[in-house]
Design brief:
71% of the residues lie in helices and 0% in strands. The chain is mostly helical and 322 residues long. Helix 9 packs antiparallel against helix 10. It is rod-shaped, with a radius of gyration of 35 Å. InterPro entries: 7TMR_DISM_rcpt_extracell_dom1 (IPR011623).
Length: 322
């Protein structure tokens, strides 16, 4: 048997060559010892098979990051244009998803902080996901106008935000172990509650709730697939492998489209109100000018009548003297 000892290393990946005979069967044993969270995806490949099979995942990840940065730029432009606080919450949520995905894919560990395993461990992923959920709840409260339309849901939203804040603090202080996986279930609860709130106010024209619900349904289904895979209820497949990433992209893309539709409606309403206000001001100015002209005519008419009266009085006085 071939033995490849690995000494303490800070590399992101390690390649060990193994020579196999055609049709041979071997057992591969790996023992790892780490003081931090560790993830060891094992791949056995040759050069031709690797280069042939790596193209699709790279294109898929590039598409995911492209859509995320497009959503971030889109809402940045909306914030610059409309100065809405809601766009800031959405940008924070998208930024956390980008950090989460980059840490999960090993990009941060490879290029930002090599050798620091916590970047790709459960603690960092949980913290980024939790911060993203805080931004999501704040965004949902503003987006769905809960304070005005569903005030009964404001307190549960605050409670959920407090729970996520406790999870962040507990994870950073080490009280909550990094290997405990419950974020997926809480994410299902949060997005399910968001879908329920959108369903309740689906007929309100001020909120694009129907459009939001259209994207929430596939998001929930994909997250359920991901959680079922994490719990061992489903085996590995292309659906379970890309379920969480696809769910986040669909969810953020749906929120971005919904937010765009709402802001377009708000912009149109503001433009309509501005046009109405301008028309009202124009009518008021026309009325003011007409009133000034009328009073000027009345003043001139009365002045002419007074002059005629004075002339008549003067004429009568002269006749009396004569």
């Amino acid at each position: 048997p071939e033995i490849h000892p690995v000494h303490p290393t800070t590399d992101h990946g390690r390649i060990s060559p193994i020579t196999l005979e055609s049709g041979a069967t071997i057992k591969l044993l790996i023992r790892a010892d780490s003081t931090d969270a560790i993830r060891i995806p094992i791949q056995i490949w040759n050069r031709e098979a690797y280069l042939f099979g790596i193209g699709a995942p790279i294109r898929a990840e590039g598409l995911v990051y492209g859509l995320l940065f497009a959503a971030l730029l889109n809402n940045l432009l909306f914030f610059i244009r409309l100065k809405k606080k809601n766009s800031l919450f959405f940008m924070g949520m998208v930024a956390m998803v980008i950090f989460y995905q980059a840490a999960h894919d090993g990009i941060i560990q490879a290029y930002v902080w090599p050798g620091f395993l916590a970047w790709s461990g459960g603690a960092f992923l949980r913290v980024t996901l939790s911060i993203g959920m805080l931004f999501l709840l704040a965004h949902s409260r503003e987006f769905l106008l809960l304070d005005n339309l569903l005030p009964a849901l404001v307190k549960p939203v605050k409670i959920l935000m407090a729970i996520w804040a406790i999870i962040i603090i507990g994870t950073l202080t080490g009280i909550l172990p990094a290997h405990w996986s419950f974020a997926g279930l809480l994410a299902i609860a949060v997005i399910g509650a968001l879908a329920g709130a959108a369903h309740k106010i689906r007929k309100n024209p001020r909120v694009q709730a129907k459009l939001l619900a259209f994207f929430l349904v596939p998001t929930l289904v994909l997250i359920v697939f991901h959680v079922a895979y994490q719990l061992g209820l489903l085996g590995p497949s292309i659906i379970t492998h890309y379920a969480m990433s696809t769910a986040m992209v669909i969810f953020l893309f749906g929120l971005s489209i919904t937010e765009t539709a709402r802001l377009i409606r708000v912009s149109k309403n503001e433009s309509r109100h501005a046009v109405d206000a301008l028309a009202t001001q124009r009518k008021a100015a026309d009325y003011l000018f007409a009133e000034v002209a009328r009073r000027t005519r009345d003043y001139k008419r009365k002045e002419r009548e007074a002059q005629v009266a004075r002339k008549e009085a003067q004429s009568n006085l002269e006749e009396l003297r004569a």
